[in-house]
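ARCHIVE CARD
Drawer: 12
Card no.: 0347
Subject: one protein chain, sequence and derived structure
Cross-reference: see card 0346
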Amino acid sequence: MAAAPAPAADAAPKGGGAKKLIIIIVALVALVVVGGGAAAVLLMKKSAHAEAGDGDEEHDAAAEKAKPKEHKAADGKPPTFVPLDPFTVNLADKDADRYAQVGINLQVDDPKMADEIKNYMPAIRNGILLILSHKSSEDLLSTEGKQKLAEEIRRETARSMGYEVPDPDEDEGEGDEDAPKKKKKKKKAAEPYNPIVHVHYSNFIVQ
């Protein structure tokens, strides 16, 4: 009996190609899944970092708002105040006896100026008392009157210490044709140096 012929050597099983294709597809899907997962993790980390950053900014902003605001001078340093003893003076009212009690704090541009003010204190107090004694109760009861008084005290204090500080309406030439020109020139001129930055009231009583 003749033997059956052997199968050809290059005849591969029919299902081999399909299995390889399936393996390749599975590998590709796995790569896509892994890559997508990694991307999702990175996005989550970035989002969490951004939220943390926003939280820190909000926290810093809140902390900045919570800080007490200091009344600082132009150079960023805390201002220097020189308190004066209260002034009690009779006013210039003609229809009644009126008096004023005023507490004043001088704000200066240099801490060293505080010692200089103490050296000139008798002259400073005398000048302020003369200003107050020429005021009436009507002059001092309005906000504008108090502001005007503060500027007058500021100028007089500097003058008492030897600084030349002219009045704002000085040399304006009332009734003179050249008065407008002088006013324009005065606006352009630099303000004379005054070591007294502000005059602050600690109390103000008119009776």
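Annotation on reverse: Confidence is low (pLDDT under 50) at residues 6-13, 62-72, 171-177. The two ends are 147 Å apart (CA to CA).
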